[in-house]
Structure formats: C-alpha cells, structure tokens
Amino acid sequence: MSTQDxxxxxxxxxxxxxxxxxxxxxxxxxxxxWRDANGRTPLMVATQANNxxxxxxxxxxxxxxxxxxxxxxxxxxxxxxxxxxxxLRATIDAGADLRSVNRFGGTPLLPSSxxxxxxxVQLCLDAxxxxxxxxxxxxxxxxxxxxxxxxGRLYADVVATLVAxxxxxxxxxxxxxxxxxxxxxxxxxxxxRICVTGEQPASATPLDRVRELIRRQSYAAALDLLSExxxxxxxxxxxxxxxxxxxxxxxxxxxxxxEYERALALDGQVLEFHVYIAQCLRRLRRSDEALxxxxxxxxxxxxxxxxxxxxxxxxxxxxxxxxxLTEMDVLLAQAPQxxxxxxxxxxxxxxxxxxxxxxxxxxxxxxxxPTNPLxxxxxxxxxxxxxxxxxxxxx
Length: 395
What we know:
Blueprint: H1 3-15, H2 19-27, H3 42-48, H4 52-60, H5 75-82, H6 85-93, H7 109-115, H8 118-127, H9 141-148, H10 153-164, H11 179-185, H12 189-197, H13 207-215, H14 219-225, H15 236-249, H16 253-266, H17 271-283, H18 287-300, H19 306-317, H20 321-334, H21 339-351, H22 355-368, H23 373-394
Helix pairs in contact: 1-2, 1-3, 3-4, 3-5, 4-6, 5-6, 6-8, 7-8, 7-9, 8-10, 9-10, 10-12, 11-12, 13-14, 14-15, 15-16, 16-17, 17-18, 18-19, 19-20, 20-21, 21-22, 22-23
C-alpha cells in the first residue's frame, strides 16, 4: 500500500470511528498529516466529530494540533470554538500555539465566550490565552460575551470569569463602545454589576462556594453542595440553573434538561432556560429537538437577538446555510447596521456557492465599517471566487 493509500485509509478509519483500524494503520506507518480535499488531517476530522478517543490517540502518535485546513482552522482552534473540552485540553498539552487565531482573527477564548462555554473559557484562561485579544470585528472575549450573550445566569458567570482574569471593561470596539456601554444598552443588570464592582452574581451567598468549585472543575462536589440544606434558601431559578449546568458538565444531559424544565414550570417566560435545553440537546446530537427549543425561546421574544442568533449559529454548524440565511435576514431586518450579521450572511452565501450575493452582503458590512481589514479581505476573496466560477462556466 502506498503512502497516499495509507493516508486515505487512515482518514476513512477515523471517519467511520474504527479504533482498531486506526491503530493498525498507525502501526503500519500511515501518514498523520495526510489531507483530504478540504485540507483536513485525520486529527481535524476526529476533532470535528468530538471523537475524544481517536483524537487523543492521533495526538499521542504525533499529529500536529496546529495544522491548518483550507479554512485556516486547526484542531486546537476547532476544539475551543465548539466547547470540545477534552480534545482542547489534549491539544494544549501537546503544544498548541496559544497565540494562533482563526480566519476571523479570534483565539478560542472569543467563540467560547460568545457561545457561553464556561468551562472552555476557564480552560483557555488557565492555559494562558490572552484575555483581551481583539479579533477582526474589533471585539474581545468580554465584548462578545456581552454583545452576543443574553446577560442571564450563564453569561453572567462567563463575564465574571473574564473579569476575574483581568479583562479590561473599558476596551472599546470599532464603533467606540465598551462592554460597559453595551451591557447598559442591552439592560444586562447582572453583567453591569459584575463589570462595575467585580461582584459575582448573587454574591455573598453559599452559591459563591459552588462557583469556586465550578472554577476548579469539581462538578460532582458542587452538585453535592447544592443538595445541602442551604440550597432551599436561594432563588429557585438560580438553583435549577446551577444544578442543570453541573449535570450537563457531568454528561447527564437528560437530567440537566429536567432541571431546566422545572425552572420553566416556575416561570415559563425566562428565555434563557429554553436555550440551555437547546444546548443539552445539541450535545445529545438531537438537532431537530434543539432547533425546536430555540424556536420556543424565539417565540417568547421574537424581536430579541440572542436566541435567534444562537439558532443561526447552530444552523451554520449543521451546514444548513439556507435556513441560517432565513434567520440572518430576520436579524438584519431588525438591525441593518449590525455588520457582524452581514458578515455571517456573506459566509453562508459563500458556503452555498452564491459568490455574487456574498460579495454584495460584505459590501453592506463595509458600508458600516469601511476600513475593517477582515471585511476587505472577505470581499477580495469573494470576488476572486466569483471570477473563478464565471471562468469555469464559460469554459
């Protein structure tokens, strides 16, 4: 078998989750850095599937955790952006370049803060990822957590973690606004209190001990603490949130959903619990149910950005770009000056091969922020792809 054939065989074994086949091919000298048509290595494919066992074995065999695919993503960046914490930890231990960024100019700390992956945020910070790194949109992790979060319990904890790590609450985005300004504009009272005083949500209560155990990733101990008598004295919604969060971190997603449903039984208008349920269903790979959970959140506040944006993100992850475009068009009708929304729309259009429309969408982003180098580069790439597509059609 040639080197090329061994590489292709290794990739196929990883794709079908054939651990024995992978081991046999590794022992036979299969090339770890063989690339598929999208520039992905076997490790990248294992990472995207969150296949912890195979990813760790490939890393142990010497696969490059910093190898970039055609989208400039590496296994390290991919694991961090998706909250695949076991693989992220393995890539960091294997020498991931903590200064590396994705094609949008972000470290893993930014998308994990945006998506509310609290443990991932803590892992990145503990590893030494820069807390105030600025991406191509002009945002830090703190700005992403405020602008793209909902200011609820989970995002309050994300913000508290970033602030405790030294995040600068006064850094301004390209429009000249700080995280404080955005939190006030969005009515995020919990986040404002944390940013202004450094105070944790519900500070000076026994929940502080729970949060400290969460910071140390002692999830079972924290869950046990919530079973003690003091728990009955707290806000029931806070207690259901923390129980649900801890159960999900322990991989008990159905039990976590039960906690969130009990919170909704107390107050069915709290949008964030629908999103927590959606996140659990995503981890269970029950995508259609997860999308329905997002829809339930959207129905509570149809004009709110948060749940619809999270749904659009998930649709892009599922490669359902046509559906993602539908959601982005609603968001853009509500907020036509949000250049990040135009940027996401352009990316979905590009993924669908609709390069002329992608170029038009990025022009809208540039109309809002004409000097942004990220948008300028995207426009140039879209025009290049459009020219190649036109040339191929004429051939």
